[in-house]
TrEMBL record:
One of its GO terms (molecular function) is protein prenyltransferase activity. It comes from the Eukaryota. This is PTAR1 protein. The keyword ATP-binding does not apply. Pfam families: PPTA. Signal peptide: none annotated. Keywords: Prenyltransferase, Repeat, Transferase.
Length: 209
């Protein structure tokens, strides 16, 4: 952190931090979320330094990959347990893991939404910084997993419409709460067009516009 703050665009420092996370932190979900939280202030104070935002892109991509991998493992475990009813302890363990992974999967769109909101706030506060636009337009924030999670929100939260295999797992109180919650605006080109129009109309510098 000190090296990144002392020398602008210090990709070497961030790359070493990534190495530490991979080999010592094992890229666990908790570590990734803690890093997202702890580097939020740093990037807010260095809005022209893409290296910090590049590090956050690594965190988000790792979080997406870890969540998808955990879900795939849980599905495989469920199939094995259904084929071996005698493995009661493993089934109970898989159920606990399923609840944990379900919570993590549910949080993923929220963290990506928060990242876009951070970019929006910084663009409003510090207009004309290309780094902020590049970060918000990165494929991390527009990946297929996120699109599927946010676009058909009514379908995703309609518990009554789940298929038979999914309904066996039941659903948590959090899912019930989300089902009752009002529909959120879908992230799409229309919202981006409105945001860009607002930025351009209030921009005082022609070069920045």
């Amino acid at each position: 952190s000190e090296a990144a703050g002392r020398y602008p665009s210090n990709y070497n420092a961030w790359s070493h931090r990534i190495w530490v996370l991979q080999h010592l932190g094992k890229l666990t979900v908790k570590v990734l979320l803690d890093e997202l939280s702890s580097t939020k202030y740093w990037v807010s104070m260095h809005v022209s330094d893409h290296s910090g935002f590049h590090y956050r892109q690594f965190l988000l991509k790792s979080l997406i990959g870890r969540t998808v991998t955990d879900n795939n493992v849980l599905v495989q475990n469920q199939i094995i347990n259904e084929q071996n009813p005698s493995l009661q302890k493993e089934e109970e363990s898989a159920g606990a893991e399923a609840a944990c992974a379900e919570e993590q999967s549910m949080d993923l769109p929220c963290h990506l939404q928060e990242e876009l909101e951070l970019c929006t706030e910084l663009i409003d506060s510090y207009p004309g910084h290309e780094t902020l636009w590049c970060h918000s337009g990165d494929e991390t924030l527009n990946n297929s997993h996120y699109s599927r999670a946010t676009r058909p929100m009514a379908q995703a939260m309609d518990v009554d419409g789940l298929n038979e295999s999914s309904s066996k797992q039941g659903y948590t109180q959090e899912t019930k709460r989300l089902k009752r919650a009002p529909m959120q605006d879908c992230l799409g080109p229309e919202m981006e067009y409105r945001f860009i129009d607002k930025v351009l109309s209030t921009c005082r510098d022609a070069d920045q516009a």
